[in-house]
Amino acid sequence: MTRTIPRYCDDKMSPFDLTQAPSSQATSIGELQHIPSPTAYEKHPEQYAPGFCTFLADNPTVFHFVNSMKSFFKEENHFEVLDERAQWSIKRGGKYVVTRNGSSLIAFVVGENYKTGNGVAMTASHVDALTVKLKPISRVNNAAGYEQLGVAPYAGGLGLTWWDRDLGIAGKVLVKNSAGKVTTQLVNLDGPIARVPTLAPHFGAPAAGPFNRETQMVPIIGLDDDEGLSGSANAGDSPTTFASTQPPRLMKAIANELGIADYSSIVGWELQLFDSQKAQLGGLDKEFIYAGRLDDHLCSYAAAHGLASSTDTSSSSIVKCVSLFDNEEVGSLSRQGARGNFLPSTIERIVQSLAASPSEGVSAMGQTYANSFLASADNTHAVNPNFLNVYLANHAPKLNVGVCLSVDPNGAMTTDAVSTALMQRVARKCGSKLQVFQIRNDSRSGGTVGPMLSSAMGVRAADCGLPQLSMHSIRATTGSKDVGLGIQFFKGFFDHYEEVDAEFRAT
DSSP character for 243? Predict the structure, then answer.
């Protein structure tokens, strides 16, 4: 089988070759001090970092991320694209990818020895991030000669770290063509377009906050020069058009970027602001990645590349699956979110397509879920050296060490004794080191898509993820080795789950 090199990796490096896990001090679990022999992996995990930085820069929104991942699976790894609205004909040994809403994606590989009722080794991550979205009517009354933009925070966006940042604008645009069909186009005004200016401290108390996000954090996008939409004879400035509800110069910039002359053909859009500063390596020895949207693009990217590196179907009798969801940061309650039916519906369609009869497929679903396992892959908190007092002793993950199991005694995470032991075995087999994180009793735990998916399908599960600093800031930090270490672990999960699961048949 030809081994495909991912587009966003060093072109001299195969996705199948990673270095051994580092032996530096780490918060480790039990027997996972095991380090593979030097010949186990030929390449170093930090070699994945530049490609990951490029990927982040190229894909500032959830729509761009999913579209690029779809191309990664289809064009570079020869996955067949499925249409959710059409019938599926799934074959053993096949590789497939399907999207929903352009903002969620599922990719899966069927083993050649698959039998009805066998399990699914699956990961679940989210591709949405804290951001600021344009309001449906983003044209606002300009103030003091500034052209401003009507926006609303998504999740915790428009927080303090959004002040004085160079913000770009990107997203998807709905365009009606000459045949009356509405198509979706992606746009990226890549550069410093918008800014939320702070008030200088010289003004005293008003500069200290608290601040009103509706009235005091309105981005500026230019100076008001009354240019309007005069550049087009078909400006679409009728009050009945979408164009009339948006800032004129923004409409012009979007239309020009997409090569659209008639602004009235733009019937809608979903645009958002993003930090236009590129992701980059940092630290004296380039041991860090400084970037936006690490939560959860880091685990999403690593899991996807792990699956793409684990597509040898000849000896497999299970389904290997990566799922990437939208709307996790706002509760996941949407058709493209993890509380929707996208993942269970996809699994059911796979099983039914491969079953000998419809009745066999339906009756096998309970068995399928019982044999399956979910790795809920979401970033977790790396230890911050300036705030050691907020971390629980022996539960403080470090950068550039490896994937971390997240535990919560109150059910915010899915990890339990059985899933911990299973993930330990996977890590040992692929030469990875596992860390562990649990929040202190006097702090509040975050959540993931793990519990909602595990409970909906009745599958065993563990919450795991790569560590980062400054979660939910507009710009965060992870380790330059963590991308490669994540790929190593998730590839190992897909490679070894079937073998490891056999050890837990009576558990």
Answer: G
Residue-by-residue DSSP string for 403-463:
-EEEE-TTSSS---HHHHHHHHHHHHHHT---EEEE--TTS-----SHHHHHHHHT-EEEE
Burial class (CB in 10 A: 0-12, 13-18, 19+), 246: buried
- The structure's pTM equals 0.89
- Distance between CA 129 and CA 349 in Å, rounded? 29
**Residue 365 token pair:** 């679903």
Distance CA 453, CA 505 (A): 22
- Residue 2: C-alpha distances to residues 70, 80, 377 (Å): 20, 16, 28
Bridge pairing between strands 373-377 and 120-126 = parallel
In 3-state terms, what secondary structure has residue 325? strand
Confidence of residue 226 (pLDDT cuts 50, 70, 90): low
In this prediction, residue 437 carries a pLDDT of: 96
For residue 28, the 8-state DSSP code is: B
| Torsional class of 306: left (φ above 0), alpha (ψ -120 to 50), beta (otherwise) | alpha
User: 415 to each of 57, 300, 420, 466, 499, how far by Cα in Å?
Assistant: 33, 19, 6, 15, 20
Instruction: Give pLDDT, residue 190.
Output: 83
Least Cα distance to 1 among 308, 306, 280 occurs for: 308
Q: Residue length, the chain?
A: 507
Phi/psi at 146 (nearest 5 deg)? -100, 140
Average pLDDT, the chain: 89
**Rounded distance between C-alpha atoms, residue 63 and residue 324, angstroms:** 12
pLDDT value of position 238: 55
pLDDT digits (tens, 9 = 90+) for 386-418: 999 999 999 999 999 999 999 999 999 999 999
Residue range 94-121: mean pLDDT, rounded: 97
Distance CA 482, CA 79 (A): 26
pLDDT tens profile 270-318: 999 999 999 999 999 999 999 999 998 999 999 999 999 997 888 899 9
Is 348 a residue whose pLDDT tops 90?
yes
| 414-430 b/e (C-beta count within 10 Å ≥ 16 → b) | bbeeebbbbbbbbbbbb
Beta strand 120-126 with 319-325 is: parallel
State residue 224's pLDDT score: 86
Angle at CA of residue 9, ends 405 and 295, nearest 5°: 35
Residue that the structure tokens 């096998």 belong to: 364
